[in-house]
């Protein structure tokens, strides 16, 4: 799914860039269209990692596809940019701390399930098998060679940005600084396991909310160089509902990355 988003985003940006270039030849300054399309690409990091979770750097990433409406505030160098779009995040889960009865600690490749109290917890991905007869419960009779374990989340986001532009009449070539807030609603989540069974490669997806927080909110800062910018998003909301995530975690997520705006 993420690869499809990337391909679509790339095609969209190439088309919009060509349009912007053609328009700029006819008119100096901002093309006369009502808004801006934005593609964010970033890396996700997590505070208060649950049960010592280790996750991959490049495999834990963000792809946001936003549309922003641009409103200049009078004749000033400030502008306001409300928007809407899709936010997509994933975490490549590598290992978590597992405590054995002998008080020893081991690390295993995890996936998410519910415990007896309905809270979300980790289980060894190599022993988790989805089977219609077992209703998705762990099967401890066999182990499987796990190749990849992912947590994937999709949000409907509303970003609100206040921006200062050195050259407000020519934003495509101007240095800009933006600050704002983002509010999102979780519209989909699933775990994804790639593994081998009897030498055959298989993929298993389990769609559930896993006690993930359905609402996210936080702030962001962007530094623009023309249509490119560097950004950081910081979520103030927790990733899981209070006390319902692995180990009762209060983990929050922040993202750093680059984005491209096209008129």
What this model shows, in words?
10% of the residues lie in helices and 54% in strands. By secondary structure, it is mostly beta strands. It has one domain (2-262). The strands form two sheets. The protein has an eight-stranded antiparallel β-barrel with strand order 1-3-5-9-10-12-13-14. A hairpin with a 2-residue loop joins strand 10 (175-197) and strand 11 (200-207). The two termini are 26 Å apart. The model is unreliable at 15-28 (pLDDT under 50).
Strand arrangement within the widest β-sheet reads 1-3-5-9-10-12-13-14
Give the overall silhouette: elongated
User: Which spans have pLDDT < 50 for at least 5 consecutive residues?
Assistant: 15-28
- Give, in order, the helices and strands: HEEEEEEEEEEEEEE
Number of structurally distinct domains? 1
Can you count the beta strands?
14
Structural class: mainly beta
The share of residues in extended strands comes to over 45%
Radius of gyration (CA) equals 22 Å
What structural keywords apply?
single chain, 263 residues, mainly beta, eight-stranded antiparallel beta barrel, two-stranded antiparallel sheet, 1 helix
What is the strand and helix layout of this fold?
Elements: H1 2-26, E1 35-46, E2 54-55, E3 61-69, E4 71-72, E5 78-99, E6 105-108, E7 110-114, E8 120-124, E9 145-165, E10 175-197, E11 200-207, E12 215-225, E13 228-235, E14 253-262
Antiparallel strand pairs: 1-3, 1-14, 2-5, 3-5, 4-5, 5-6, 5-9, 7-8, 9-10, 10-11, 10-12, 12-13, 13-14
